Amino acid sequence: MDKVNIAAKFANFDTHWDPKVIGEIDDYEIKLVKLQGEFVWHKHDDEDEMFFVIEGDLDMAFRDKTVHLEAGEMIVVPKGVEHKPSAGPSANGECRVMLFERKGVINTGDATESDLTRRTLERI
């Protein structure tokens, strides 16, 4: 039971769209990820996802609207809802996000596997 310094954890990696596990709560993982540019359209049929913006800003596109989030704001994407996260224009286009997701969730969901797909996550 040690405290976790979020800024120090973010300092441990430079990659984008590459979630890192920093903790667990029951069957959920707490992850940090740096976003830059756009991700892929995808959905998770059986899992909700929570995105909490730590630094920068995030545009969460849905098929009918886009929700803009700034540092200190969060959004829950319900299971089965197609979405595409993108880093917003602040902080040179990089956004730092904390994710809460069920263990085993593949970041690209139902999208075709690509170089953005992460099946095994590093714990930092």
Can you give a write-up of this model?
The chain is mostly beta strands. It has one domain (6-123): Jelly Rolls, CATH 2.60.120. 4% of the residues lie in helices and 43% in strands. It has 1 helix and 9 strands, in the order H-E-E-E-E-E-E-E-E-E. The protein has one helix spanning 6-10, and strands at 20-25, 28-36, 49-55, 57-62, 66-70, 74-77, 83-87, 94-102, 122-123. The protein has a 6-stranded mixed β-sheet. A hairpin with a 2-residue loop joins strand 1 (20-25) and strand 2. The chain is globular, with a radius of gyration of 14 Å.
CATH fold descriptor: Jelly Rolls
Which H/E pattern describes the elements? HEEEEEEEEE
Tell me the fraction of residues in β-strands, as a range.
35-45%
What shape does the CA trace take?
globular
Biggest sheet layout: 6 strands, mixed
What top-tier CATH class fits best?
A: Mainly Beta
Which class of secondary structure composition applies to the elements? mainly beta
Order of strands, widest sheet: 6-3-8-2-1-9
Give the key terms.
single chain; 124 residues; mainly beta; Jelly Rolls; six-stranded mixed sheet; 9 strands; 43% strand
Topology of this protein?
Layout: H1 6-10, E1 20-25, E2 28-36, E3 49-55, E4 57-62, E5 66-70, E6 74-77, E7 83-87, E8 94-102, E9 122-123
Parallel strand pairs: 1-9
Antiparallel strand pairs: 1-2, 2-8, 3-6, 3-8, 4-5, 4-7
